[in-house]
């Protein structure tokens, strides 16, 4: 029998996931909580085999940070990251944390029950790509990695000088990337850019 822990801040979603678990043979609900930090404690204290982990949880606790801690100290626990957010870095960070599977709540074509079953059997279930998001005139997939890093820094409120120091590049190089981003998106200012990036949830600095 596999003991599962659900970590989800939405009560409606938690109840939905609990019903999904009831349909899976040899899988029982050990606990259902809303805070990722408490999930780390639960995994250290309890007999947990599987964690269904939302990225954005109560009290702004990051499910990705919690997942990395769980996999570090209890690598045998299976962790499935779940999110409805299209944030561009979540997939890569989940892989780096050692998570076993990843499921987009609203767009994934594979049912959650199948993801759970396959993960418990040792399979790794991952989407091929992030959900498509348009920022201005361009799909987010058309930004370079460096441009995404610059946008993340802008979203966090950093000045060009701070971005240059953080990335170990010149201020002129930062300006070059910003100019390229604005040309691609069609925006006239970084204020418009940041507003769109935050609204579309392409970048969520807290998580």
CATH topology of the largest domain: Rossmann fold
How large is the share of residues in beta strands?
Answer: 15-25%
Provide mean pLDDT, rounded. Answer: 94
How many domain regions? 2
Taking the sheet with the most strands, its summary is: 5 strands, parallel
| CATH class label of the largest domain | Alpha Beta
Assigned CATH architecture of the largest domain: 3-Layer(aba) Sandwich
Describe the fold and architecture.
- The chain has nine helices and seven strands; from the N terminus they run E-H-E-H-E-H-E-H-E-H-E-E-H-H-H-H.
- It has a five-stranded parallel β-sheet with strand order 2-1-3-4-5, with helices on both faces.
- The longest helix is centred in the C-terminal third of the chain and has 15 residues, at 171-185.
- The protein folds into two domains: 2-120, Response regulator (Rossmann fold), CATH 3.40.50; 134-199, Winged helix-like DNA-binding domain superfamily/Winged helix DNA-binding domain (Arc Repressor Mutant, subunit A, Orthogonal Bundle).
- Helix 6 (145-155) packs across helix 8 (171-185).
- The radius of gyration is 19 Å and the shape is elongated.
- The protein is an alpha/beta fold and 207 residues long.
- The chain starts with a strand and ends in an 8-residue tail after the last helix.
